[in-house]
Each structure stands twice: as structure tokens, then as C-alpha cells.
Amino acid sequence: MDTKETEGQNEAPPVDPGCLPAWKMGEMPAPAPYQWRNILALIGPGLVLAGSSLGTGEWVIGAAAAALTRGALLWVAPMAILCQLMLNTEAMRYTLLTGEPVFTGFLRTKPGPRFWLVFYFLLDCMGWWPTLAGLTAQIIVFAFTRQLPDPNQVRWLTCGLLILAASLLCFGGRIYNTLEWVLGGKVFFVLGYMLIVTIFFVPFSTWMEITSGMFNPFRVPKEVDWGLVAAVAGLAGIGGMGNILASNYVREKGWGMGAQVGAIASAVGGQKVTLSHLGTMARPGPDTTNHFRQWWGYIARDQYGVWVWGSLVGMLLPCLLGAEYLKGDYFHGVAQSKAAAAMASDFGAARGDIFTTLTLLCGFVIMFPGQFSSMDGIARRWCDALWSGSERVRRMDAANVKYIYYTLIGTYVSWGIALNALGISPPRMMMISANLANLSITCCILHTLYVNTHLLPVEFRPPMIKRVGMLLAATFYTTLFSLMTYQIWPKVVSGELFRQ
After folding, report:
1. What pTM was computed for the model?
2. Which residues, including other chains, have CB under 8 Å from residue 241's CB and lie 6 or more apart?
3. Element (H, E) at 24
4. Which bin fits 146, alpha (ψ -120 to 50), beta or left (φ > 0)?
């Protein structure tokens, strides 16, 4: 062990580390020059985040909202993406400077890690529905039968898809590498296909109607279904606790101080990858300030240049296609079994069977990688939380983090199979989880703001305008959740919300 590393372990950080052991101290590495010839290597979390969320909710909820309201109140989607942009970048700020995911920062605050682990677990597990696997199953069954899918077939296939998604996460050295390839391919295929069909088969009048609805807050339908409106906001971008994964991916990419802590290894091919239990804080000084500004440029390009535009376009295109071609109501009765295939069925009926097949393929490429990344996201954030927040787990060897990760993957699969057995339809699952996501993201926004204004050196804390923006973002989500709760509470009490 060299002298600098020893000094870093013994050096006191410039701020109180809170309820977990103190960070080590180290020098922030300088980023590689941002040049066109190495741009693919420098595109990072934004691509993975865009790929994980692209179209998953918009394909069902967004398209339905556009068809029912003709774009009215769709402005909540870009507003939600703007709010999430502030959360993403602030979560990434914490990791650039400490190497820790921001969830670990949550655990450092009072009353301590035990409380926050239980609090966020209860908040998070309410959204662990196997929604995307169920919607993928609907697409597969409809593709082979071209008939209304049998709910029993969908349920059995959902179980198989959950197991398949878990198996795919076993390869890639670093699991992040697998995600980058799978989700990057999804982004290019889905955006390419959807751009072609919407440009050539959606009239300009529909483009104007839906696009204006996304940016005009004064277009309001006569009767507002706040559950649907709040679900659109909950599904736009990423939503829920998924946004704080932006910080995990900064670490996995090795940006900033993330380069000094390691990554989560895959079960096959990742034996040499290790992960420190706690982070290493950047030692304040002129070099750190300069390097932080350069890394912040990476964050800005990644989030503003990749994630925001991917999220906005990913919301707009399915809404355009749904507004023009989607017929009927697939949130009630037996039609729920066809929700994920409805867009392909109706578009193909109008434009030819070839478009039924191609749109089903597009739906599959949206839904299955979405389930793949959703499973990883849940396991990843809880693996990191336990890896740092549990004294017992902190005694484990740094190379054994993958055992925690895959235990959580197995737990999620088992939980998903159990929830699937309840017989709740996938679109109903999506409505429930999307609305609950608005509550959990509110907590994440406020907690991230607190962490970055108390656990980071003063010179690296967010500016006042960002703090105000974070408070307004929390207010936005809280308002939507409150309006939805007020409107649907009688259905919750009567049990109608959970019935087919």
C-alpha cells in the first residue's frame, strides 16, 4: 500500500460522514478528452437510462392517454422529465465526488441506515410488479395466435420471461456492460422504427395536436382521470426510485471518484471485478475543482444531450401512433389481455399485416429489455444499499458483491411470480406501480437535496436555483399523487381498483 493510499484512509473528510463510517480521501482523476473519435466510449448513464425506460410506459399508458384525451394534459410528461433531470444530475453529483451511489448517501443521514433501509424497502417493493414481463408475454402470445391472448397463457409465459431475464444478467464481466449493449441497441431500433412509421403514416394534424398538448398546460378535458394523468407522469422518463440509478451507473462507468471503488461483477466473466463497501471522497483543492468541472461537462452532455431527448422522443412517438390508430379501451374487461399488442393490432389493421408484425417486434424490443433493466435496477440499488448500509455485509470480501446482487435477483423473480399469481392484469399493474412511483420519487428528490447540501464539501454543493428547482419538482409529484389519491380512494376502499 503506497503512502498516498495510507494517508487517504487516515485523513478526516471535510464534512461529517453521518451514520456510516467515513469515506477515504483521494484525488479525483482527470477525465479523458471529450472528442468525436472516442464519443461512444464516453456516452454513459444517459444511454442506459434512456434505454431502460424508452417506450415501456408510453407504449401502453401514454398511447392510451393520447387516444382518449387527444393530447390534453400530456404536458405532465415533459414536466416530469424536467423534474427527473434535476434529480438525475444531483444524484450524479454526489457520486462524482464520493464514488458512492446516492442511496448510500441516504443511509448516512439520521436516523440511520436501519431506518432508511426499511423505509425505502416498503416504498419500493410496492412497485415490484412483473408488469413488463406480463406485457411482453401478451405480445408473444398475440404474435403466434393473432387472437385475444388467454390470461392463463400470459401468466405462465410471464414466469418464464422473468427467469430468462434473470439468466441474461449472468454475463458480461461488469453487469453494466451487458446493460449498455442491450439497451443501446433498443434505443436505436425503437427510435428508428417509430420515427419512420410516425413520419409516413401519422398526419401532420395529429402531430400538431399531440405535440401542442405536450407543451400547452391550458388544454384540459371535460373530465380528468387523475389516475391516468399521474400515471403518465410516473412513467415518463424513468420514475420512482429508478432515477437514483443514474448515480450507480456513474460509478459503474468509472466517472469521477467512481473509478476508485469498482463495480458489480456478473456471475460469468466477472471474477476479477470488485466493489468497495464505502466510497472515496475527492480531496478539495484546485485540481479537484478543475476536474469536477470537466466531469460535470460529461454529465451535462450525457443527460441533456442523450437522456432528455431520448425520453421526450420516446414519449412523443407512441403517443402519436396511439392517437391516430388506437381503438377501444384495454383497461377494463377481457381487452386487458391485449393491451401491449393493441397498438400493433390496430395499426396493422389500418396499414397492412406487415405493420402488425413489425410493430409487435418493436413492442417486444421495448418491453423485454425494459423488464431486464428494471430487474437489474431493483437488485442493483438494494445490493448497493446493503453492501454499504449493513455492518454484517460490510464484513464480506470486496469480490463477493455479486452474491448479494444475484440473491436479490432471485428474490425479485420469486416475488414477481407470486404477484403474477394474483391474476391482476399487466395494464392494471402498470397503473398501480406508476402512481406509486410518484410518491417514491418525491422522497428521493427531497432526500438527494438534503444529502448534497449536508454531506458534500461546501464548494461542490448545488447552487440555489437548483435547490429551488428540486423543491418545485417534489411539489409537482406530490400534487399529482394527492389528486390521484383523492379521486380513486373510494375505489381502493371498495376493492374495485384491484378487480378485473
Report:
1. 0.89
2. 120, 123, 124, 127, 381, 437, 440, 441, 444
3. strand 24-26
4. left
